[in-house]
Amino acid sequence: xxLIQFVWFLSLFLACFCSxxxxxxxxxxxxxxxxxxxPYFDVELLVGKKWRVYYTWNMIFDSKCYDTVFKRPTKExxxxxRSDMKDYLQxxxxxxxxxxxxxxxxxxxxxxxxxxxxxGPAGRFLAVPNVxxxxxxxxxxxxxxxxxxxxxxxxxxxxLLVMDCVMRGASLSAHAQPxxxxxxxxxxxLQVEGPGYPxxxxxxxxNEMIAT
Length: 212
Prior knowledge:
By secondary structure, the chain is of the alpha+beta class. It has 5 helices and 9 strands. It has a single domain (2-13, 42-198), classed as Calycin beta-barrel core domain (Lipocalin, Beta Barrel), CATH 2.40.128. 18% of the residues lie in helices and 27% in strands.
């Protein structure tokens, strides 16, 4: 279950068989298109910080806390993930263009993917999830699809919106503990399609009371 929630999320981003993933009707307009009309992406504001998910759309994390770190990939990392995944991908990315190495943790579980700039507005990426290194996961040859991800910084880089453009899941993260009311305000302003839910619900700002 943790793998599938991740696999949507950077999504890994794929939670298509996950019971806490809520599908919404397919539309002619791509899920990420609206946010792509007003992109804001700066790699320097993204890398090296721990981003924690505090809100989601079309999936439910409840009390689970997902932390993600973005890094610039080393040649060794690119080669390792390429060696792990090349035989399982339906289509090969341009490995030399890898721009971000992403590590997501929930509890004691850790997952990773490699992201490549995609055509379109700033913040569009194709991504390779390294599912081979996930325990109890046995991908079939040539069956793993490249993920289509959109990333947008919100509130001058205080928050991070991550969207899976195919599976239609999204999350809003912060790199410092936010007020829940502020998270809700930014989530509403983004107008992401689909039902939204608070995440990491047991955590609260020390100066803010949350009704129980």
